[in-house]
Design a protein that fits this description.
Layout: E1 3-7, E2 10-13, E3 18-25, E4 33-39, E5 46-52, E6 57-60, E7 68-73, E8 78-83, E9 92-99, E10 115-116, E11 120-125
Parallel strand pairs: 2-11
Antiparallel strand pairs: 1-3, 3-8, 4-5, 4-9, 5-6, 7-8, 9-10, 9-11
Length: 126
């Protein structure tokens, strides 16, 4: 069991950038999968990006490819989500999630993750 906390959300104009951080405590140092999800009121939760911290393998949902980059800092036990060229449609509450197993090969599925952070709000104005 680990505890996750997200930082870096805020308000930004369209075309701007933000970097989100997911900081883990109770780090087990076992290979695990970390993912970013987002959700807006009245809509389903969407998987944004995922990284397997054992080797850095990553994946992205189509709508953010080329704009978002997921990365890790093993010393700080942190996973980042660099978000560039932000669009109003990126506005959402962003959540970090993790599990000790391999990343789900079928996609970024929230039902496969064990631990969740409290979320950080991202608002993009046009």
């Amino acid at each position: 069991l680990i505890q996750l906390a997200e930082f870096g959300g805020g308000s930004v104009q369209a075309g701007g950038s933000l970097r989100l951080s997911c900081i883990a405590s109770g780090y087990t140092r076992s290979r695990r999968c970390v993912a970013w999800f987002r959700q807006v009121p009245g809509k389903a939760r969407e998987g944004v990006s995922m990284i397997y911290t054992g080797d850095g393998t990553s994946s992205y949902t189509d709508s953010v490819k080329g704009r978002f980059t997921i990365s890790q800092d093993d010393v700080e036990n942190t996973v980042f989500l660099q978000m560039n060229s932000l669009k109003p449609e990126d506005t959402a509450m962003y959540y970090c999630a993790a599990r000790v197993m391999f990343c789900p090969p079928a996609g970024i599925d929230g039902g496969q993750f064990d631990d969740w952070g409290q979320g950080t709000q991202v608002t993009v104005s046009s």
